[in-house]
Amino acid sequence: MSFLDPYVTENAQGFSFTRLQASLFAKQVADDYNPIHDVEAKRFCVPGDLLFALLLVQKGLYPRMHFHFSGMVGDGVPLHIEDSGNGDWKIKDERDKEYLSATHAGTGTRDPELIEQVIRGYVRFSGHNFPHILRPLMAENNVMINIDRPLVIYESMSIDLAKDKMHVPELELTGAALDVVGKRGNATLSFNFMEHGEVVGTGEKKMVLSGLREYDAEMVDRMVALYDERKRNKVV
Question: Does the predicted model carry a pTM greater than 0.90?
Answer without folding.
Answer: yes
